[in-house]
Amino acid sequence: MDIITANAFIDWDSARRVVQPPWKNGAQDVSLRERTKYVEACFNELQVRTARALEACDLNFPVKVALSRVYHGWHRGKTPTDDRKAWEQARTLVRAFTTKKLSYLPDISFGDAMLCGGLRMPLLDTLRSRDDGHDQQKMVDTSLVADLLCYCRNESSNFRKGKPPMSMAIIVGNDDDLLPGSFAAESWGLPVRVLRINRAGESRFLKLDRLVYSL
Questions:
Q1: Torsion sign over Cα 14, 36, 107, 5
Q2: DSSP state, 163?
Q3: Do 167 and 189 touch, CB atoms closer than 8 A?
Q4: Is the C-alpha dihedral spanning 63, 53, 172, 158 positive or negative?
Q5: DSSP alpha helices (H): ranges in the chain?
Q6: CA gap 118, 16 in Å, rounded
Q7: Beta bridge mates, 195
Q8: Which residue, 18, 54, 20, is CA-closest to 197?
Q9: What are residue 136's phi and psi, to 5 degrees?
Q10: How far is 54 from 62, CA to CA, in rounded Å?
C-alpha cells in the first residue's frame, strides 16, 4: 500500500498548549527532570491529536510522520535554554505511535539546524531579553517557514502531473505568520495541513478550507 511520508514543523509555543504544565505559570525553579517529563507528555499527546486530526483530513493514503522539526528560542546567545536541555533529554524517551492510518515516528530535530545548511548555521541567539526585562523569541516563525519551503523544494522532484504526491507537510502552529509560507508550498505542489491548538476561530477573510484543522 502507498504511504504518504510527512515532515512535521512544530512551533513549540503552540504545541505545548496540548498539556497543562504541572507547575505554576512563571515558576523559575522547575527542575530539568520535571521539564523533561513535561516535554515527553506533550509530544505523546501531540502524536495522538495529530492522528485524530489527519483522520478528519480524509487523506487517501496512510501517513508516516518520519521527522518532527521543533522551533523555539533555543539559545540565549550561544547558551542552550532550559527548554532545549529538556528537549534533548526527552527526544531519547519518546516512542513511535501507530494507528491504522498513521505511523508517527519519534525522530526529532531542531530549527537551529535549518534544512538549507550552509556556513551560517547553527541559528543562534533566538531568545533575547527586551528592554523591559521580558524574553522575546527571534527568527522562529521565519525559520519554520524557510524550512517548509526548503522541504517543498527537496520533495518537488517527486511531484508528477496526474499523480498524487507521496510526501506532505504538517505544521503545528497558531500564528497566522505561518500561513503565507503554507500557501506557497501548497501552490508549488506539496500537500500541507496546518494544525491549530485551542484556537477559538479563524479569519473569515482567508481561504483556509482543507488546509487548517483543529488539533
A1: negative
A2: B
A3: no
A4: positive
A5: 12-15, 32-56, 82-90, 140-155, 179-187
A6: 30
A7: 172, 213
A8: 18
A9: -140, 130
A10: 9
Residues sharing a CB contact under 8 Å with residue 214, sequence separation 6 or more, in sequence order: 53, 195, 196, 199
Residue 27, pLDDT score: 76
Q: Rounded CA gap, 143 and 114, in Å?
A: 7
pLDDT confidence band for 1 (50 / 70 / 90): low
State pLDDT tens for residues 63-119.
999 999 999 999 999 999 999 999 999 999 999 999 988 999 999 999 999 999 999
Q: Render pLDDT for 144-179 as a digit per residue (tens, 0 to 9).
A: 999 999 999 999 988 888 888 999 999 999 999 999
User: What is the grid cell recorded at 116?
Assistant: 538549507
Cell 503545528 -> residue: 172
C-alpha cell at 32: 530539568
CB 173 within 8 A of CB 11: yes
CB 175 within 8 A of CB 137: no
Strand 97-98 relative to strand 102-104, pairing: antiparallel
CA atoms within 13 Å, Cβ hemisphere of 61? 16
Q: Say which residue the cell 502531473 belongs to.
A: 161
- What was the pLDDT predicted at 144? 98
Answer whether 7's CB lies under 8 Å from 148's CB: no
DSSP letter (8 states) at residue 158 = G
Q: Supply the pLDDT for residue 87.
A: 98
Cell of 131: 528592554
Are 99 and 38 in contact by the 8 Å Cβ rule? The answer is no
